[in-house]
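Q: What does the assembled structure look like for these inputs?
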Amino acid sequence: MMSTEFLIQTRENIDEMKDNAFQLTQAEAPGKEVLLGWLRQMLLIREFEVRTMQAYQNRLIGGFCHIYIGQEAVAVGSIAAVNPDDPIVLAYRDHGHALARGMDPKYCMAEMFGRIGGCAKGKGGSMHMFDAEHYLYGGHGIVGAQTPLGAGLAFATKYEDEVIKGGKSSHVTLCYLGDGALNQGCFYEAMNLASLQDLPVIFVLENNRYSMGTSIERGTSMAHDLRVKSEAHGIHHAIVDGKNVIDLYKDFKSIADWCREESRPFFVEAETYRYKGHSMSDPRKYRTKDEELVEESNDSIASLKNYLSEEYDVASDALKQIAQQVKAQVKQAVEWANNSPETPMNELYKDVFTDHWGPYAGTSKPEMLDEGGA
Ligand SMILES: Cc1ncc(C[n+]2csc(CCOP(=O)(O)OP(=O)(O)O)c2C)c(N)n1
Ligand SMILES: [Mg+2]
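A:
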């Protein structure tokens, strides 16, 4: 019988790997006000997700829904390290990134409620947060599908900066992916093109160690040393701490500056963990309670609070006040979503690129269009 045991190796040499990875120049640590802003964002994401779970259980949200609790530091720290007009493209676990990028939580919540007030008029739902104004080019439900889009966005900014404007490429795209996407062919096609064409895109692997119920060791070759995935394409790699927003920011800032300067791609692995199940219906039988407790005891929000108290003497009352303000903001978002009208049927064929009739005559007309549809 074939054995797969030989594939499973530990990451005991991880420190050595970190040392051997691309040498990052150390970016400056941000000051107190910036850190308080990040704490607010991380608390906002967590509270938003808690309310999302409640709304889902109350059947106000339907369809697929993936919770980002535990991973907040990755979105907040990495997005803070780039400019507001640097494009972002995401997988489906996307609420946290949308909020970190500046989407008003009410548009994000209404999107999940399937209401007209949502960022995609309620037609996308949880997995498809889109906000062109904030250069957020969508959450994507097909695992890995966003990786060629990330390369394409970087191609677009490079083309615009260099060819249309005749200057130097000055943008960098953040393209997030989960560890499950490491096993999708399109990711390797995207890295190949990104390397060949010197595209300034950072592939941000959020390694939360599971792809649905499959641990990375069981589903991904060379899981103990993911450098090889990008080195095959001549793309630099770094491992960053996905639980420490300050360190993560500093690393990302150095990487983003380098990508911008050199117009080259990069592969960053952020070590993180999702506290909740894969989606709303996941009993988490594939991992132990002990493992979850260990991960939750190293929480990014708790660490940042401690840091603020110890380094800047921020009082616990001040921290509580931020938490209360965030709670109120999310409550309002839920109310706003609740009060937003259902998306009408005649919206169905709006905002799509195709002419739904096409050039063909005589095709049958969808029934709903007889009722004053598009
Ligand atoms: C091409 C494709 N295959 C399978 C699925 C089903 N699927 C949805 S989510 C998921 C797991 C992906 O895990 P990962 O990339 O680690 O992201 P995470 O959920 O951990 O954020 C799978 C297999 C899919 N959406 N697309
Ligand atoms: Mg995963």
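The chain has a mean pLDDT of 91.
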